[in-house]
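Lab notebook, bench 4. Still working through the backlog of constructs that have no structural model yet. Next entry is a single chain of 483 residues. Request: give me the C-alpha cells for it.
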Amino acid sequence: MLGGTGGSPRLESGASASGSSGSVLVASSDNTGTGGAGGGGTGDVGIETGATREGNAGALRLETGNSTEGSSGNITVAAGHGGSGRGADLQLSAGGASDGTGGNVAISTGASALEKSGAVTLESAPSTQTGAIGLRTGDAADGDSGSALLATGDATRGAAGEIALRAGSSVGGASGAGVSISAGDSLDSAPGGDLALSSGGSGTGDSGEIRAATANVAAPGAASGRMSFRTGAAAGSSGSVDIQSGSSSEGQGGAIKIEVGFGASGDGGAVDISAGSTSDGVGGVVTITSGAGSEASGRVDIASAPGTERSGSVGFTSGAAEEGPSGAAALATGNSTEGASGNFSMVSGSSEKGNTGGVGIASGAAPEGNSGPVRLSTGTAGREIGALAIETGASSSGAAGSATLRTGTASSGNGGQIELRAGDASGTAGGISIQAGQSGSRTGGAVQALTGSTEAPDQASGSLRLETATSASSGDEIGRAHV
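Model written out:
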C-alpha cells in the first residue's frame, strides 16, 4: 500500500452464549520421524512486528482477557523438555538503541483491590545440581554502571515486608554455603565503595536492632563460628575501627558491653585489648576513660571476678625494654581546682578466717647498677602539711605486728644511714619522740639504743652521742638533756 495504514488481520475463536469461547493454537507441526529426512526438528514459530525506517516499530502485546466474576487466564511462557543435551533457553530482553537509552524490562505482579498483590518467584529448577541465579547490572564502557535495588514496598497501615538473605543448607559432609556482601572496587586512585548497614528508623518509637551473631551449635565437641571485625591492610595507614553508641538529647547514652561467653569446662575465654605495634616509631596508646558528667565523672573499675578456690590476680606493669629505660607506671588521683583531690588507697583484701595478703612496695633490683629509691611523702601545702603515719594494726587476741626501719647490708661499701629528723620552722621546730608501748598487766616496752659492733681487731664499735644543739640567743640558755 502506497499511503495510509495497511490492513490488520484478526485471528480469534468463536464466541459462546453459555459456555467457553473456542481456543486459538498457533504451532508448528510435530515431527515423529526417526531418521533420514524426517529426523530433523520441528519448525520455528515467530511472532514479531515489522521493521520500519523512520517511525516507531509496532508493539507486541500478549495478554489474557479480563473476567468480571471469575479468574482471568494465566500466561505461561516455557521452553520445551529435551531428552538429551542442554535444556532450551528462555531469553527475555528489551530492545537496544543506537542513539538513546535501551528499553526497560518490567516484571510486576497483578494488583488487588481487597487482597494482597501477587508474588514474584525467581528460582532455578530443582535438580541433582541446581543452576545459579545472577542479578546484576551491565558493564559500562564510558559512564556509570546501573545500580541494583532490592527493597520491599512501604505499608500505609500494616507492616512493611521483610528482606531475608540466606544461603541454603548442606548435607553429606559439605560446608554450609557462605554469604558475601562487598562494595565495589576502584581501579584508580578514587576510594572504594562504602558498605553501610543500618536498622530502620521510627517516627515516634525506638529504632530497630542490629544483631550480628554466628549460629548456635548443639553437637558435642563442636565449636560455634568465629566473628571478626577488622579493617583491611594497607601500604599507607589502615582504616580505624569505631565502636560507639549513639548520643541522646534527653535520655541516657547506650552502654557498650564486651563479654566472653560462659564455658562449662576448661579455662574461660580471654579478653585481649592491645594497641598496634610499629617497626619505626612509638607503639599505639591504650586509653580507658570514664564519661564526663555535670555532677561527677563516671567510675573506672578494674577487678578480677570472685572465685570459689581463689580469684584471679590483677597486674599493672609496663613492658620490658632491651636497650633503653622501661616505661613508667603512675597511679594517681586527679587534680581539683576548688575541692579536695581524691584519696589514694592501697590495701590488701580482708579475710574472715585466714590471713590477709601483704602489701609490698619496692624498687627493682639492679645486679650491675644502682637500685631505684623509694619515697613516701605528703604533698606541699599553703597551710598545714598532711601527716605521715607508718603503723601496724591492732590485735584483739594475739601480738601486734612489729615495725622495722633498717637499711640493707653492703658487701664491700658502707652501710646505709638512717636519719630521723623533724622539720625546721620559723616558730617552734618539730620534735622527735621515741616511746615504748604501755602495758595494762605486764612490763612496759623497753627502749634500746645500741651501736654497731665490729669484727675487726683494731677497730672500735660505733659511738653513741646524745646532746642538745647550740642556741643563737644572747644568753647562756640551751636545751636540757634528761636521762
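Notes after review: Residues 181 and 386 are 64 Å apart (CA to CA). The mean pLDDT is 86. Flag for follow-up if needed.
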